[in-house]
Amino acid sequence: MPCMDFAEKDAPLRLIPDILKKTGPVLALDIGSGTVDALLALPDQRPENWPKFVLPSPARRIGALIREQTQASRSVWLYGTTMGGGFAEAVREQHAAGLTPAASPTAAASLHDDPAQVTDMGVCLTEQCPPGHVPVCLADYESGFWKALLSACGLPMPALVLAAAQDHGRHADIGNREGRFRLWREMLTASRGDPARWLFNDPPQACTRLRALHDCTGGPVADTAAAAVLGALAVPEIARRSQRQGVTVVNAGNSHTVAFLVYREQVFGVYEQHTGLLNAESLLADLKDFRLGWLPDEAVRQRGGHGCMFLPPLPPEAEGFMPTFVLGPQRNILQGHAQFVAPYGDMMVAGCHGLLFGLSLALQGKRLA
């Protein structure tokens, strides 16, 4: 099915050029489990000409560094900030090889919020680098990395950094899987379904990863799924379609698949499942019940997912949210069952365009949380 190109004159992102003239270059980052997708929005250039990068995610790079040290029989000491923990298997491999990985308490939170769970992985918690260990700095955003990359490409430094990452959050009373969906409930209810309010200058206290990311970038941050739905709504055809009837937006990520019910650019439902637990048949079955408001939250969690919730009542004018739009690196799971979304012809930076769209809405008077 052909991609929808984003090139219409009435696009919501038409405000971005004026914003860029005031702010200067803006670097938008969508940090996933497999890749980090980057878009450098430049004043006085068409969006089609904005430089973009699809690189291995920071967690994958950290995992590769740890494995290099394991092969050299050297233990690592992890330090720095809380980030995505996609390198946990590399840490386990180091311990299995008879080495003694270590981590500072802050860095250890990247592996698990519970320190006991981290020590069970064979990791020693210490504020100082043990003798003979190789220090490895953790961060979802390293300014030095981006400065070197942009400089090597002859590109200007950003005046503002927008960034998205998935955050399960820290929840002492319930597990991370249920806790993440409690965050969705709180965000959906507090915002009354307005995804523009899911871009944060002050992330929720439970969102330790987003708070660390904000400390590193100094700019607004969001969950990757929020960036994705904003990226879909930045496409004029989708935004206008949602004014006439409800639509379903699906972000099929490498790790998580999140679906949204959207009517008049307002989100009325959120569904989240682990992508590895889905196939086309099971996802289509879930989406069918989800659109009708019939999918129980408990049923999603029993199958290993995060959950499902609705902002009642589902408007009858939405007509069952039947038109379905999909983006994300695993979007082929809905090949032939949904229309692919590709702002300016590139699906991989849809979340980056979503962050810019969210910023434009915020600067129109919708405050950042």
Structure commentary:
- It is a single chain.
- With about 375 residues, this protein is α/β, with parallel strands linked by helices.
- The protein contains 13 helices and 16 strands.
- The strands form 3 sheets. Strands 1-16-15-11-12-13-14 form a 7-stranded mixed beta sheet, with helices on both faces. A 5-stranded mixed beta sheet has the order 4-3-2-9-10, with helices on both faces. A 4-stranded parallel beta sheet has the order 7-6-5-8.
- The longest helix has 16 residues.
- The radius of gyration is 21 Å and the shape is globular.
What's a concise summary of this model?
This protein has about 375 residues and is of the alpha/beta class. The chain contains 13 helices and 16 strands. The chain has helices spanning about 15-25, 60-70, 90-95, 105-110, 115-120, 145-150, 175-190, 210-215, 225-235, 235-245, 280-290, 295-300, 350-360; strands at about 5, 25-30, 35-40, 50-55, 75-80, 100-105, 125, 135-140, 160-165, 220, 245-250, 255-265, 265-275, 305-310, 325, 340.
